[in-house]
Protein backbone atom coordinates (compact mmCIF):
# COMPACT_ATOMS: atom_id res chain seq x y z
CA UNK A 1 0.00 0.00 0.00
CA UNK A 2 1.10 3.58 -0.59
CA UNK A 3 1.65 6.13 2.16
CA UNK A 4 -1.77 7.75 1.65
CA UNK A 5 -3.55 4.45 2.20
CA UNK A 6 -1.45 3.69 5.28
CA UNK A 7 -2.34 7.14 6.57
CA UNK A 8 -6.06 6.53 6.00
CA UNK A 9 -5.97 3.08 7.57
CA UNK A 10 -4.07 4.18 10.69
CA UNK A 11 -5.31 7.76 11.11
CA UNK A 12 -1.70 8.98 11.16
CA UNK A 13 -0.73 11.92 8.94
CA UNK A 14 1.66 11.21 6.09
CA UNK A 15 4.25 13.64 7.45
CA UNK A 16 4.28 11.65 10.71
CA UNK A 17 4.76 8.41 8.77
CA UNK A 18 7.70 9.98 6.95
CA UNK A 19 9.11 11.06 10.31
CA UNK A 20 8.80 7.51 11.64
CA UNK A 21 10.69 6.36 8.57
CA UNK A 22 13.42 8.96 9.13
CA UNK A 23 13.76 7.67 12.70
CA UNK A 24 14.16 4.09 11.45
CA UNK A 25 10.82 2.95 12.87
CA UNK A 26 9.20 2.18 9.50
CA UNK A 27 11.00 0.69 6.55
CA UNK A 28 8.95 0.84 3.36
CA UNK A 29 10.08 -0.68 0.12
CA UNK A 30 10.41 1.59 -2.90
CA UNK A 31 8.55 0.93 -6.10
CA UNK A 32 10.03 1.47 -9.57
CA UNK A 33 8.45 4.91 -9.50
CA UNK A 34 10.21 5.71 -6.19
CA UNK A 35 7.01 5.70 -4.17
CA UNK A 36 7.01 4.22 -0.69
CA UNK A 37 5.29 0.86 -0.60
CA UNK A 38 4.22 -0.54 2.75
CA UNK A 39 3.32 -4.11 3.53
CA UNK A 40 0.22 -5.01 5.52
CA UNK A 41 2.39 -5.38 8.64
CA UNK A 42 2.98 -1.60 8.59
CA UNK A 43 -0.49 -1.04 10.03
CA UNK A 44 0.42 -2.99 13.16
CA UNK A 45 3.83 -1.30 13.35
CA UNK A 46 2.25 2.17 13.22
CA UNK A 47 -0.27 1.12 15.89
CA UNK A 48 2.59 -0.05 18.09
CA UNK A 49 4.54 3.18 17.52
CA UNK A 50 1.50 5.28 18.44
CA UNK A 51 0.88 3.32 21.64
CA UNK A 52 4.51 3.57 22.67
CA UNK A 53 4.45 7.32 22.00
CA UNK A 54 1.32 7.58 24.17
CA UNK A 55 3.32 5.87 26.94
CA UNK A 56 5.73 8.82 26.80
CA UNK A 57 8.58 7.02 25.07
CA UNK A 58 10.87 8.86 22.68
CA UNK A 59 11.36 7.64 19.12
CA UNK A 60 14.89 6.55 20.08
CA UNK A 61 13.46 4.44 22.90
CA UNK A 62 10.77 3.11 20.58
CA UNK A 63 13.44 2.11 18.07
CA UNK A 64 15.01 0.00 20.81
CA UNK A 65 11.70 -1.44 22.04
CA UNK A 66 9.82 -1.93 18.76
CA UNK A 67 11.46 -5.26 17.88
CA UNK A 68 10.08 -6.59 21.18
CA UNK A 69 6.50 -5.43 20.46
CA UNK A 70 3.89 -8.04 19.67
CA UNK A 71 0.24 -7.44 18.91
CA UNK A 72 -1.61 -4.14 18.96
CA UNK A 73 -1.80 -3.82 22.74
CA UNK A 74 0.89 -3.16 25.28
CA UNK A 75 2.38 -6.58 24.58
CA UNK A 76 6.16 -6.87 24.71
CA UNK A 77 8.44 -9.86 24.59
CA UNK A 78 10.99 -9.75 27.43
CA UNK A 79 13.94 -8.68 25.29
CA UNK A 80 17.30 -7.92 26.96
CA UNK A 81 17.38 -4.57 28.79
CA UNK A 82 13.72 -3.93 27.91
CA UNK A 83 12.48 -3.62 31.49
CA UNK A 84 15.46 -1.44 32.42
CA UNK A 85 14.57 0.95 29.58
CA UNK A 86 10.89 1.05 30.53
CA UNK A 87 11.62 1.51 34.23
CA UNK A 88 14.12 4.28 33.50
CA UNK A 89 11.49 6.12 31.45
CA UNK A 90 8.91 5.63 34.22
CA UNK A 91 11.37 7.02 36.77
CA UNK A 92 11.94 10.04 34.51
CA UNK A 93 8.19 10.61 34.24
CA UNK A 94 7.80 10.33 38.02
CA UNK A 95 10.55 12.92 38.49
CA UNK A 96 8.85 15.22 35.99
CA UNK A 97 5.48 14.81 37.73
CA UNK A 98 7.10 15.64 41.09
CA UNK A 99 8.61 18.79 39.56
CA UNK A 100 5.24 19.80 38.11
CA UNK A 101 3.50 19.26 41.46
CA UNK A 102 6.08 21.48 43.19
CA UNK A 103 5.70 24.13 40.47
CA UNK A 104 1.92 23.99 40.79
CA UNK A 105 2.15 24.47 44.55
CA UNK A 106 4.54 27.39 44.19
CA UNK A 107 2.24 29.04 41.66
CA UNK A 108 -0.77 28.51 43.95
CA UNK A 109 1.20 30.10 46.78
CA UNK A 110 1.88 33.18 44.63
CA UNK A 111 -1.78 33.41 43.63
CA UNK A 112 -3.11 33.06 47.18
CA UNK A 113 -0.59 35.53 48.62
CA UNK A 114 -1.40 38.07 45.91
CA UNK A 115 -5.16 37.58 46.38
CA UNK A 116 -4.79 38.24 50.13
CA UNK A 117 -2.87 41.45 49.39
CA UNK A 118 -5.53 42.58 46.93
CA UNK A 119 -8.32 42.05 49.46
CA UNK A 120 -6.28 43.88 52.16
CA UNK A 121 -5.12 46.80 50.02
CA UNK A 122 -8.19 47.17 47.83
CA UNK A 123 -11.24 45.96 49.78
CA UNK A 124 -13.60 47.41 47.17
CA UNK A 125 -12.14 45.06 44.56
CA UNK A 126 -13.12 42.11 46.69
CA UNK A 127 -16.77 43.15 47.09
CA UNK A 128 -19.32 41.02 45.35
CA UNK A 129 -22.58 42.56 44.06
TrEMBL record:
Q: Where is the HTH merR-type domain?
A: 1-68
Q: Which Gene3D superfamilies match?
A: 1.10.1660.10
Q: List keywords of the entry alphabetically.
A: DNA-binding
Q: Does the keyword Amino-acid biosynthesis apply?
A: no
| Keyword presence, DNA-binding | yes
Per its UniProt record, what InterPro entries does this chain match?
Answer: DNA-bd_dom_put_sf, MerR-type_HTH_dom, MerR_fam
- One MF term in the entry's GO annotations: DNA binding
Pfam families, sorted: MerR_1
Stated name of the protein: DNA-binding transcriptional regulator, MerR family
Amino acid sequence: MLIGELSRRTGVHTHQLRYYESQGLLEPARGNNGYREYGSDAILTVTQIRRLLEAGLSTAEIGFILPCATGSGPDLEPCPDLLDTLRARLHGLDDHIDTLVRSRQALNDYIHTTERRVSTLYPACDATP
